[in-house]
Design a protein that fits this description.
- This protein is of the alpha+beta class.
- The chain has two domains: 157 residues, PurM-like, N-terminal domain (60s Ribosomal Protein L30, Chain: A, 2-Layer Sandwich), CATH 3.30.1330.10; 163 residues, PurM-like C-terminal domain (Phosphoribosyl-aminoimidazole Synthetase, Chain A, domain 2, Alpha-Beta Complex), CATH 3.90.650.
- The strands form three sheets. Strands 8-10-5-11-9-12 form a six-stranded mixed beta sheet.
- Helix 1 packs parallel to helix 5 and helix 4 runs parallel beside helix 5.
Amino acid sequence: MTSYKEAGVDVEAKEKAIEEIKESVKETFTDDVLSASTTFKFGGTISLKRLMGYNDPVLVLSTDGVGTKMVIAEKMKKFDTVGVDILNHSINDVLTSGAKAMFFLDYIGASRLDVRIVKEMVVGIAKECKKKSIILAGGETAEMPGVYHDGTYELTGTVGGIVERENIIDGSKIKEGDVLIGLASSGLHTNGYSLARKIFFDDNNYSCDDDLPEIGKLGDALLATHKEYANSVLPLVEKKLINGIIHVTGGGFPGNIPRIMPQGLGAKIKLGSWEVPSLFQLIQNLGRVNDYEMFKTFNMGIGLVLVVDKEKKNEVIEMLNNEKVHEIGEVIAKEGIQYESS
């Protein structure tokens, strides 16, 4: 008699994976979680009582995936940081609206689930959630032979954050002459990996173990964890010092900066106002990639951009004393992006 397991889906392995991660997930729970038993059934239950402390709370939601950065994790057989990548990416996404992340859910898909790998990913997420006081409210593990290739994994996450309605940042206050302040990234973050992998592995036959001048071990440089900016930026939101926030992700500068600009406005980026990290320079030189393509694909060393009044620039920079910051440009009365050499 043919079984589900023979068809490629091992329900017992999935259940074992859930048992292995339960304690780590529970450690993220606060008094807001109504029942741990519910979380491991069909849905997590979270009390909204804490929202009573807000005057007019708004829920901000975002979903994204770690993308082909997972291929680097698979090559290195190291899965404890990719969950942190998508958690931090998601925190930054809701931060662009001024929201503080409150809960997170993950999805892990594969052709065949390896309990050890699933545990490594989820425990990594749970540890970071606990550190940031974010509830890991639930998740899904899906075994889908025929959809995913053998040995490959997909990891996505959904985050929920809260912001006072009066503090929502939507770009509507941005005006000509506002200053663009860039906060340094920690590497590629979670975007541009398909191009980076093609250049390093397909075209130049590098391996993750190769030690390269200025960047060290290639695999470690590519797997550097996506930086999270909420701790540094939320105090600025509360003081109403920010007119706009851009998370520089897929699409790079031209794909993200114009998204928040009011009609008729754009940005002038001052090239040379920050030093582009060696990893990006190496990618560009090895692949003979032109500047436009680089800025369209990668964050180029700037993970988050704040749009602020010129008069408040110094106060903002002073409050960002835990970040590497650069004044990278200004808002101009022309849509799109212009690049200006310094």
